[in-house]
Amino acid sequence: MPFKIYEMKGIPFALFILCIFFSCSAQTEQQQEYLRWIGDIAHDPKVDEVDFEICGSDSMVYQYFSLTHEDHIKEEKPYIEDYFLKNYNSVNLDQSGWIRIRFIVNCKGEAGRFRMTESDENYKERPFDQKISDQLLSLTKSLDAWNGFETAEQPIDYYQYLVFKIHQGRIEEILP
Predict the structure, then answer these.
(1) Which of 78, 86, 132, 137 is most enclosed, with most CB atoms within 10 A?
(2) Per-residue pLDDT tens for 108-134?
């Protein structure tokens, strides 16, 4: 007796089963790509410095709200504000909004895995002129203001961020 292929509204049953199988396989692969929490920064060799390493594992990087503000900043906030106000060259452009730079500080106090988000004053994502964004990123990378931590049980790596309120190409405010 020859093998009979069942059809469902003109689609061979074997083809239907194959489509289901590949669909499930693709979903399984996508689920494995999810990070631990929204906003986690996975290592990306295309953009991250090759010499920056976290002390622990990616699954153990503390969120910035897990430590008090005083714990992770070597200097007081005025030090950071002065650093940017002295070193940032205002750009005479009609661009205003927010630039957030988020990164990881390892247990030695070294920063890496920098990621930047840019938005207008209404928080709608949009790019700034590179004279503004590249300068802020470069200054943030060279800022030496972070404490490193280790406990008896483990080294501590943590997320840190700086948010710049930009008005007409000038820094108006730095958060946190």
Answers:
(1) 132
(2) 989 998 999 999 999 999 999 999 999
The answer to whether position 113 is within a domain reads yes
Is residue 61 scored above 60 in pLDDT?
Answer: yes
Token digits of residue 74: 């070597």
Q: Are 58 and 97 in contact (CB under 8 A)?
A: no
Q: Are residues 4 and 76 in the same domain?
A: no
Task: Take residue 9 and report the two structure tokens written for it.
Answer: 């509204």
DSSP 8-state symbol, 159: E
**Residue 77 domain-assigned (yes or no):** yes
Q: Specify the DSSP element, H or E, that contains 90.
A: none
Same domain, 8 and 65: no
> Over the stretch 76-91, which tens digit does the pLDDT of each residue have?
788 899 999 999 999 9
- Please give the Cα distance from 100 to 89 (Å, whole number): 18
Strands 170-175 and 158-167: antiparallel
How many residues does the structure list for the chain?
Answer: 176
Please state the domain count of the chain.
2
pTM, full prediction: 0.71
Q: Which domain holds residue 16?
A: 1-34
